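WARN no homologs supplied; continuing
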Amino acid sequence: MVEEHRIILEAKDLKVVRGGTRLLDVPTLQVRKGEVLALIGPNGAGKTTLLLTLSYLMKPVSGEIFFDGLKVGAEYSLSNYRRKLAMVFQEALLFDTTVYRNVASGLKFRGVGRREIEDRVIEQLELFGICHLKDRSARTLSGGEAQRTSLARAFATNPEVLFLD
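OK structure emitted
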């Protein structure tokens, strides 16, 4: 199969139930490398639940998730899978530290070297127009500045799959 058209993420028979209520029932979902997929639906339709489940931040009651053809949690470790993903939530979830350190956090978790962290963080701060905020506390950011910081943090990790809620 041509590299850019291979299935990178696949879900089969995903079901999420909370408090006896079915929140999610997805028979099949496939995302190909380079593909952009938009989930559209009313509030409460399960869009966020699907993203949380695909990222394994919420556990399904049944179903399987495959990354690059390998079953996550069996043939592909959960920790390696999570390193391939980034998620930006609707509400910016930032650490109580500087903008720079927030953007660097995902790279530090992944064991990236200090010099590469610096280069990638500065690149993303410039890309999102927030370089001038790098030393500012995340607590003092406006909503838009916080969201751009979250995006910069996600993009800095060069994820293979990016979830935007």
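Strands lie at 7-18, 21-32, 62-67, 70-71, 85-88, 161-164.
OK
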